[in-house]
Amino acid sequence: MKSDNKISEAVVRRLPVYLRFLNDLQKREIPTVSSQELGQKLDLNPAQIRKDLAYFGDFGRKGIGYDVSYLIEKIRHILKLDQQINVALVGAGNLGHALSNYNAYLKDTMKITAVFDSFAPKVGQQIHSLTVQPMEELESTIRKQGIRIGIITVPDFEAQNVADILVASGIEAILNFAPVILKTPSYVRIHAADFTTDLQSLAYYLQDGREEIEDGKQ
Ligand SMILES: NC(=O)c1ccc[n+]([C@@H]2O[C@H](COP(=O)([O-])OP(=O)(O)OC[C@H]3O[C@@H](n4cnc5c(N)ncnc54)[C@H](O)[C@@H]3O)[C@@H](O)[C@H]2O)c1
């Protein structure tokens, strides 16, 4: 396997996509899959898939394809999902509530295991099996549960403050939903999730019917 820092972000981001599809094949008891089938279903180039997977070893067998269970095991190992990964979420508002609730039903080794909020009436609230904790308990819970990933779902003007607290408590990676660019030490990996900009950029791909609409109005 090549060393981690040589694997491009694009490849790392495709692996969970492969994994989700392979899990579905496994549920349907389909034992093998070819890179052509994977490519067709995932709308990716089969050569790209073979190249991605070859980064981590020689998994495929000519004429047979990939053993689904084996490939799942390998990808889970590469993504470090073969171990329990606890995640902390800060901001038990509308979005934080929805994410924690959704996550509670996942049968996965990677889970939100602690939810925090600074607003007293939120503290003690139950979100599925999780109890919203006060910010004062964040550091000790993170250390107790060995949490290394945090999710930020607080308002934009509080996000940097929360990121600083998370980093000071030992968090190494953050999924940030707040619409701000966070400043953190270089060893902290930040991924931004942005529903609004994703949606806005979709507008660019619309067929340009502006003139017809204007014509229709005349
Ligand atoms: N990226 C996306 O796709 C997307 C979608 C929706 C909302 N958002 C963003 O997510 C964030 C949350 O949105 P929402 O609608 O859930 O807001 P919300 O107001 O319902 O929830 C925010 C929560 O954060 C808590 N909070 C505020 N400051 C805090 C602090 N310093 N420490 C701990 N908790 C704190 C509040 O008490 C509240 O419970 C916002 O920044 C919003 O812009 C992003």
From TrEMBL:
Major subcellular site: cytoplasm
A GO CC term assigned to this protein in UniProt: cytoplasm
Keyword terms, alphabetized: Cytoplasm, DNA-binding, NAD, Repressor, Transcription, Transcription regulation
A molecular function (GO) term: DNA-binding transcription factor activity
Subunit-level organization: Homodimer.
Function field: Modulates transcription in response to changes in cellular NADH/NAD(+) redox state.
Full protein name: Redox-sensing transcriptional repressor Rex
Species annotation: Paenibacillus monticola
Gene name, Swiss-Prot/TrEMBL: rex
